[in-house]
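Annex B. Sample input.
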Amino acid sequence: MSKGRRPSGKAGPKRPSKRPSSRTGSKPAGKGPSKAFAKGGAKAHPSSRPPSKAYTPRPPAKESQVPIPKRDKRPPRGEYRPAKRPSLDNGLEQLEGRNPVIEALLRKRRKVRKVMLDERAREDDKIRRLVSLCQQEGVRIERVNRDSLDRMAAGEVHNGVIAHADQLPELTVQQLLDQVYERGEVPFLVLADEISYEHNLGAILRSALGAGVHGVVVPTKRGKGLSPVVHRVSMGGAEAVPLVREGLSSALKICHKAGLRIVGADMGGVAHWDLNWTIPTALVLGGESKGLSPTLRKRCDEIVGVPLQGELESLNVSVTAGIMLFERARQLSLESGS
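Annex B, continued. Sample output.
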């Protein structure tokens, strides 16, 4: 018989178990009375445990107490970022994008102090032109990484180019008209009331440049001024066409005294092609949502509109401006015979 094996058919003595039996509630010797016995001498089931506290769910957290997940302060490329004030602490203005910087160098209405260029920018025709203009004007170029430009940018798109330049010269309506008359030209101004969207102001400046407008006037306290978005959308219009910040009431008084006819753009007026646009004129545009206000409408000599079809009620203010400005350009070309 091998060692450690029980003989066949005979049960050997069992080893005492240290684990208490689930049936008898026995405990190892010397351990005291079992906790399975309840107070008062009543014997409880050995497998029962003291009752746990009733579960009460936590009340839902208030909206103000919900933790807000942390995120990177710098939004990813392509995400909308609100435009900041383009002027810098040293009095310079920040230009963003290839076209605005190139136009500032070409127009020479202000001095460009420094150009920061993406160090990995592909050298296409615009980059080569930008570098050439900087060399001609003696403007310093700094090669920086893309992340630095992203952090500096105040607008949505910078295309790998950011520049610091002097502020554009400020003019009043009277000074602007004096310059136009001194050059022997027929003055034409655009007065835009409460233009809230930067893209609309940029588009108006772009059309004004293409149609030969002498200046755009916007209110001092209402509407948008020049910003990186306006510069980018205007495609050089902001650098070439003076933007005057002046109250529209005082501007209209000056225009009347200078012999300009005041024309308001609004629905219900005569067709824009029936108006003679070749004489000194100031075109007044209303806001995007309100249109031409009753106060400005009373100050106008003529009200003109764009005839529409297809049950369309109105056009975007920048589209309306473009249609009327280029009708003037068409009439001027017919008058000059070109």
